[in-house]
Specification:
Two copies of one chain form a homodimer. Chain A contains 24 helices and 13 strands. By secondary structure, chain A is an alpha+beta fold. In chain A, strands 1, 2, 3, 5, 6 and 11 form a six-stranded mixed beta sheet that branches. Chain A has a three-stranded antiparallel beta sheet with strand order 4-10-9, with no helix packed on it.
Chain lengths: ~675, ~675
């Protein structure tokens, strides 16, 4: 509970006599004073329990591990880069010993056998040093995940026990200097040599060197290398191979490694470049869950279509995206906690009284800067909970299957991509706003924003560039209207939209289907939305659904028009690309709000429900407000109603003001993770 | 000139037969093909000459100094913090020897006697290492500026010659831990001791320690200290004193200094904290241009009103804000240059052809991400040119005056504050977007974004928090409608709005005056704006003028209503605060567009004018588009027209695509300042 006295701008301090306001202008104030609203009292422990969900235990394990090793936050600033890297590695191994990093691996190899727990652990780790987080992600998520998901029992037996303990360090060598997003165009080649029953791995051109590979510069002994498989002179597309790259600290024969050098952040992780010069590995080092090469040099796969095969392989690595999204959201929690608590302590300028300066959080502008970000952090948290729970179900259910695709799998991939994009952009934005809201003090490294800002910056890029991911989401939306395209290249969205989407989606008159669906979106008929209450979640959701359907049908229409006009498909795509992104974004925003609404609806009546409803309303209305131009352009918002939304947001902020301290305490960021002696005093 | 082949998305490659488009949907495409638009050819040298303006020579001096010392960019990454600080200090002294840092001081002391040149030099320095920039700003702008502007001939004689060469290092000790924005509430006290004719400087409480003071931790021997002057038991408000703080590397007696430690960026600058424990300085150390204390202990000032006196003193330090704004804008130029050139080299995904991947800059989305930022960089550059030219005139004209206030001075302060706020936020946003647009490569320190992002981050805070500055701008707007309030506390905006603005502005029926003015804003009558051409600068400017006037009158109306309703003035302010900020922002946005329009209008007909008109149109329409919801809410934009603006922006982006390389080359950022071997190849 906050110990602050009730601030002057809270609802109770309104003048007791209703002002003679015009109907439009002061509607919010009258509602406040007439509605008999009672300020809820939040039980912080209850709130934390709600946020932690079913994985409270593992989250608390991570919290205490973080607190125990809190000194790494300072080490990051004082140690040399080399020492810091070693410190981070040692810490990863120590944490592995507590079981927190191996939750997602099968129990028979020493893991916890619970994917959901492994994501909860990872997310919570984002409260601390983010080099530790990313090193854990590289070692257990990417490297370990590739062995687990792309390999078969011999690989599991050979690598999992030692990688789970951190004894065997590995890396995930997919990205090349020349190709990050377009993985199908990688230039590394693995040629099968039938004479020796080996693959020969080669970097075929300079920009095909592996680049930005975490763990590569220093610690990895083994790499999972993605390369074009060539068998008998035929290219079979990108596959993954286990390649030893280092022994006793020295690069293996034929392997050249270079340090990527200083980075904007995450300098506790040793990123590097790798070149392969005819490196020979045994045939068995192909991770052969989805495809194999016989000793005689015959390529075999259960998945006939090469695109679908590639797509299936990448699909198994979805966990990384879910983790990064959760990491971003939790890093934002640290920032918003610090900024909120600072604003509850810092005073500047006498505003309401002559004898005391005003708390920052009692300024309307400051509430407007922080509370929408706080509300969105909650919203994304609940979305992330849904995505990771769905990942848990899909991976637990299909772990031993042949990876055959289905609607659930594609939906999960889309949601993981969308939540990663929105969650990491939210982190960038929130951390920036919170730094500025803490003024000059926010610029000192000891006050946490330096590391938060630098370390999270690349979250919007790695595990899939956010813009590319949103195009992936849009692809899913378009294919849902046409037929199944399981054989599509997952990341080759550009070609998809320019070819298949145009030829198939539109020929099947999906556009018409789309337009019909829009009419069904509004639950109470065509003009219902003009009269529904702003705080009615059905109204809020209907608005976001309408937007999603409308933008999507617009994309399809524009594609069709371009092709009808005989324009170059690439140019059609270029022109419609911002609408493609907008469609994806609208889709994910709708899902996020649905997650928040569902969560609050399920709560038992009580103060916590009242408080979270305020936050949920604030998030919903801010989401509509941010795109209110679109809603007005498309006849779904009158200018009067649009202004009413902005006023309602101000009113919600004032109601949330007395709850702010408890709402950030609910995240339960361990105190040593906040540091900030200057800000929190 | 760009050597790229004409991209597929440029205007020329449109289908030669006009498509059978609906009137609304494809209006832009038809205009493009029918208008006979000829792509201009840019003479880069001519463009650079235009941007450099009358100070081309000094800008080129700085460019060559930067190139000569380019290794500091790498030193910033490889050196220890201590060594880097020394390196930066040495570099500042070396640059001082070339004359570039002393342009703003009188010639008789070894300066250049040209304020405008000094700002041009400072801005250009922002192409390089920003610790060097900020150290220069602290030494010559803040410390030197305070001696020059607040001191009199004895101070000039005593300090200017050595500070101009960098032999005497100083700092500017205004901010305290407890007070950054609210300078009038500083807790440091200087008491006059008539017996010894000395001032006794004391830190009266812990949060009154000076904090974040550049140059303080290591190099400054002298500080200009802002403290509450007490004479004969009476407090006379904040004044500035010269206090020796360090000799031969050791703190002076009674002075305690602490290092602020690692910061988010700018680690080549030694920021620190200072405590004073009864430090005695001679009476003559009061910087006495505006007020003095006689030996007998009588306080004297030509400016009777204490608020006006304080305001006048701070007003003389305006140069710092102009410099920081220019620094931010020029740092943005570095980022946009790198991102644009990378996008002209980097290919990803086959889009228009099967045999070659597409250049990033040929994607519509990528153009949409970068070009509005490029256009805004130009717009802010021209605004900054106006502000610094106006500063030059005011300071050159009034340097020896008594600092009496006038409309021109207040207007300059307002414009400096607004340009600083918009310029530094633009830097933060542009650098972030450009980093993301360069993907993982953008995350490597060698590719410049790490330093740009970290070092500029605090620009939005120092020399006045941007939100506080915009409130200062708003104050100026409101006072313009009422009467002169030269005696207002400059930074005490909150109290101003809650007291004077409400009581005076409104009582004088300024609201009515405001509402009348709005009607005069549209040049062609009430509905003219619905039919004017989108590319008509008069239309664009009228839109921004209308918005400015309307928001401003709304603020006044809301203030009045609150007071009429007997609400607490602090609460009234809290509720109207976001409108106050919006009014200020709308005002500055209008000025920025006016600056850009005026610049392009003055150009002789020719290709350069055509090119800059495209940029200016893009900037204007993006500014309207960003707030199109507001324009629709207030009846100044139909939804049809709003959508037309978005389409026109797409069309302008396609026209600018072939010009992009030249447009960034025009900034003439020296190649060694770009570094980025991975990005620029």
């Amino acid at each position: 509970m906050s110990t602050d006295t009730v601030p002057p701008s809270s609802a109770e301090n309104l003048p007791s006599t209703a002002p003679a306001a015009t109907p439009e202008q002061d509607a919010d104030e009258r509602v406040e004073s007439r509605s008999g609203y009672t300020q809820p009292v939040i039980d912080v422990a209850e709130l934390t329990a709600l946020l932690d969900g079913k994985y409270a235990e593992v989250r608390n394990l991570v919290r205490s591990n973080l607190a125990e090793h809190a000194s790494v936050l300072e080490d990051a600033e004082t140690m040399s880069r080399d020492d810091y890297r070693e410190r981070v590695k040692d810490l990863v191994v120590e944490m592995a010993a507590t079981g927190q990093t191996g939750m997602g691996f099968p129990e028979e190899y020493g893991g916890g056998g619970d994917i959901g727990a492994s994501i909860a652990a990872f997310e919570t780790l984002a409260y601390g040093d983010l080099s530790v987080l990313v090193k854990v992600g590289v070692q257990f998520g990417l490297f370990g995940g590739a062995i687990l998901q792309l390999g078969t029992k011999p690989h599991h037996d050979a690598y999992l026990p030692d990688l789970i303990t951190g004894k065997l360090m590995g890396c995930f060598a997919m990205t090349e200097t020349g190709h990050g997003s377009n993985v199908q165009a990688l230039g590394t080649v693995a040629t099968y040599d039938v004479a020796t029953q080996e693959f020969v791995v080669t970097t075929t051109r300079e920009d095909a060197r592996k680049d930005y590979i975490g763990n590569a510069a220093k610690h990895a002994e083994v790499a999972v290398v993605f390369a074009q498989l060539e068998v008998g002179g035929k290219s079979e597309g990108v596959h993954a191979f286990v390649v030893p790259i280092r022994a006793k600290g020295k690069p293996s024969e034929g392997v050249r490694i270079e340090d990527d050098g200083l980075k904007l952040g995450l300098n506790g992780v040793d990123n590097g470049r790798i070149w392969f010069d005819g490196v020979r590995i045994p045939r068995e080092n192909l991770l052969n869950r989805f495809a194999d090469v016989t000793p005689a040099g015959v390529y075999e796969s259960n998945i006939e279509n090469p695109n679908k095969r590639f797509f299936t392989m990448l699909g198994t690595l979805i966990q990384g995206r879910v983790c990064v999204g959760g990491g971003g959201i939790n890093a934002a929690k640290v920032a918003i906690t610090i900024a909120t608590k600072y604003a509850l302590r810092r005073r500047q300028f006498e505003a309401t009284r002559d004898d005391q300066e005003e708390l920052l959080l009692d300024y309307g502008l400051h509430q407007r800067r922080l509370f929408p970000l706080l509300a969105r952090t909650y919203a994304l948290h609940f979305m992330q909970e849904l995505v990771s729970s769905s990942l848990h179900d899909v991976l637990s259910g299909t772990q031993s299957s042949d990876g055959s695709d289905d609607h659930g799998q594609r939906e999960l991939e889309s949601r993981a991509a969308g939540t990663k994009a929105l969650g990491t952009w939210h982190a960038t934005r929130t951390i920036q706003e919170c730094r500025e809201a803490c003024g000059g003090a926010g610029y000192l490294a000891v006050n946490r924003f330096a590391a938060l800002k630098a370390d999270t910056d690349v979250f919007t890029t790695f595990e899939g560039d956010n813009h590319v991911l949103l195009q992936l989401v849009a692809k899913g939306l378009l294919t849902d209207y046409a037929s199944d395209f399981e054989d599509m290249d997952q990341l080759g969205m550009v070609r998809f939209v320019t070819n298949l989407a145009v030829e198939t989606v539109i020929e099947k008159t999906a556009v018409h289907k789309l337009l019909e669906r829009i009419k069904d979106v509004l639950p109470g008929g065509d003009n219902w939305d003009q009269e529904a209450g702003l705080l009615d979640p059905d109204y809020q959701l209907a608005m976001l659904r309408f937007r999603e359907e409308h933008i999507l049908s617009g994309v399809a229409r524009r594609l069709k028009r371009g092709i009808d006009n005989k324009m170059n498909p690439g140019e059609v795509f270029s022109r419609v690309q911002d609408h493609v992104i907008a469609a994806a974004r609208a889709h994910v925003e709708r899902l996020v709000l649905e997650a928040f609404v569902a969560k609050t609806r399920d709560l038992p009546d009580g103060d916590l429900k009242v408080a979270l409803n305020l936050l949920c309303d604030l998030h919903a209305l801010c989401t509509i407000e941010a795109d209110r131009a679109w809603f007005m352009e498309h006849g779904r918002l009158s200018s009067t109603r649009s202004k009413a939304i902005s006023r309602e947001i101000g009113s919600l902020c004032r109601k949330l003001r007395p709850l702010a301290d408890d709402l950030v305490d609910g995240f339960a960021v361990p105190a040593p993770m906040l540091r900030s002696p200057d800000l929190l005093g």
